[in-house]
Design goal:
By secondary structure, the chain is mainly α. It is built from four helices and no strands. Helix 1 (34-49) runs antiparallel to helix 4, helix 2 (59-67) packs antiparallel against helix 3 (72-93) and helix 3 (72-93) packs antiparallel against helix 4 (101-123).
């Protein structure tokens, strides 16, 4: 004899909770202009070009400052990228200890992946939050 409880699926009128680990659907900006979308995409992708041309690391800050007062979408994506860059500077400064070198290498890989994820979210008109960053600018 089994003491397990039967599994009851919710009906169509009942709320079904999201799967474990899911935060629900991403927030979207409806009626987003192509200019705002392109600014947000550029803010996520220019740090990638900064590996080849160091000065391009500062491009997201410039793009954000130019457009932040005209679009809440661009302002939100810009704050996220600037927070990511500031967190990266803080983590990179800890390389001096030597113990954190593997951590910083993992951080760089994670940053690269999330920059691409952020650009994809921006191109879809979705808001994006970088995981594991310090929110210097809220």
């Amino acid at each position: 004899m089994s003491s397990a409880m039967p599994v009851v699926e919710p009906g169509p009128d009942q709320h079904r909770p999201p799967p474990a680990g899911s935060a629900g659907p991403p927030l979207r900006e409806e009626g987003l202009s192509d200019t705002d979308r392109n600014y947000a995409i550029a803010m996520h992708l220019t740090p990638l070009a900064g590996f080849a041309f160091f000065l391009l690391v500062f491009a997201p800050v410039a793009l954000w400052l130019i457009r932040k007062d005209k679009s809440a979408f661009v302002d939100d994506h810009g704050r996220e990228v600037v927070n990511l860059l500031l967190t990266t500077v803080v983590f990179s400064a800890t390389v001096i200890t030597g113990i954190t070198v593997p951590f910083v290498l993992i951080w760089v890989v994670m940053m690269l992946v999330n920059l691409i994820r952020g650009a994809i979210a921006a191109s879809n008109g979705e808001y994006f939050r970088y995981p594991m960053i310090i929110r210097f600018i809220s």
